[in-house]
Design goal:
By secondary structure, the protein is mainly alpha-helical. It has twelve helices and two strands; from the N terminus they run αββααααααααααα. Helix 6 crosses helix 10 (about 220-240).
């Protein structure tokens, strides 16, 4: 039989709670919080634990779905766009991965023990032929040895074009700051501070610009024109074979050098301007 206190609790509108240590039912009021000792008994009772375990997943799913829907409704639009990468970003990442993979596959002359390491000296000779210092020294010598105003005009404009190429390439390299390939050996001829960066290839820009300059002003015979084109292509190819640059560095360098020649034609120094410049230098 329940105790009188338990009966009084039933009459006041209570509900049964399992977990009495004496094997009897105890009652608690719905209008007030249960005592602490009853809460401990609820957690220790096996039947109550099974009931709570069976009910808790449903409640968790309901609360998580409501929280997720509320979070999705309250998420700003820019955050949603950050979670979904754009098509342009995916395309650029894929292009970069292909560029790195192809550049490493083509770096067959990066060192002496590479698959094509035997032709590395030839590639380094082609590398020196596209370096800026030999071109600057050769152009100054031709200006000094030229005995005609037309020859001096062409050579002096070529000298200005080479200086313009050095400045533009240095600016782009300092801005982009792309590191050279990991398989590259820093044994290049006459390097400077910006030469530790890879994008764009200065040899490629110089080869494209000087190639167009030679074809437009100096080289007229068809066999020599073919040789100029082959030389420009080999300079760009040697940069990848030696592991100096990635493929995109060389391709962008060719495009940049092609455009630089258009700028040189726009800034072409006339004979009158040359005479004034030479007079000031004298």
């Amino acid at each position: 039989m329940p105790s009188p206190k338990a009966k009084a609790t039933v009459r006041s509108g209570g509900s049964p709670v399992l977990g009495s240590s004496n094997g009897r039912y105890e009652f608690m009021s719905l209008s007030r919080a249960p005592p602490p000792h009853l809460l401990q008994r609820q957690g220790s009772d096996p039947t109550t634990a099974r009931l709570r375990a069976s009910e808790s997943p449903t409640r968790r799913r309901g609360s998580s779905s409501s929280t997720g829907s509320a979070g999705g409704q309250g998420m700003p639009e820019e955050d949603c766009m950050r979670l979904n990468p754009s098509f342009v970003g995916i395309a650029l990442s894929s292009l970069l991965a292909i560029d790195l993979w192809l550049s490493k596959r083509l770096g067959v002359c990066a060192c002496e023990d590479s698959s094509w390491g035997s032709i590395r000296p030839l590639m380094k000779l082609i590398e020196i032929s596209g370096h800026g210092i030999p071109w600057l020294v050769g152009t100054v010598y031709c200006v000094y040895k030229s005995d005609s105003a037309a020859g001096q005009e062409v050579m002096l404009n070529l000298f200005m074009a080479l200086l313009l190429d050095l400045v533009l390439v240095a600016i782009v390299k300092a801005v982009v700051r792309r590191r050279r390939p990991t398989h590259n050996r820093m044994d290049m001829f006459a390097t400077f501070s910006v030469d530790r960066y890879s994008f764009p290839s200065g040899h490629a820009t110089r080869a494209a610009m000087c190639g167009r300059f030679l074809l437009a002003h100096l080289v007229l015979a068809a066999p020599l024109r073919v040789l100029v084109l082959l030389w420009a292509g080999m300079v760009g190819l040697s940069r990848v074979l030696l592991g100096r640059h990635n493929v995109t560095d060389v391709l962008f360098g060719f495009w940049m050098g092609y455009c630089q020649y258009n700028l040189v034609e726009m800034l072409w120094l006339s004979p009158q301007a040359l005479q004034g410049l030479l007079g000031e230098l004298a």
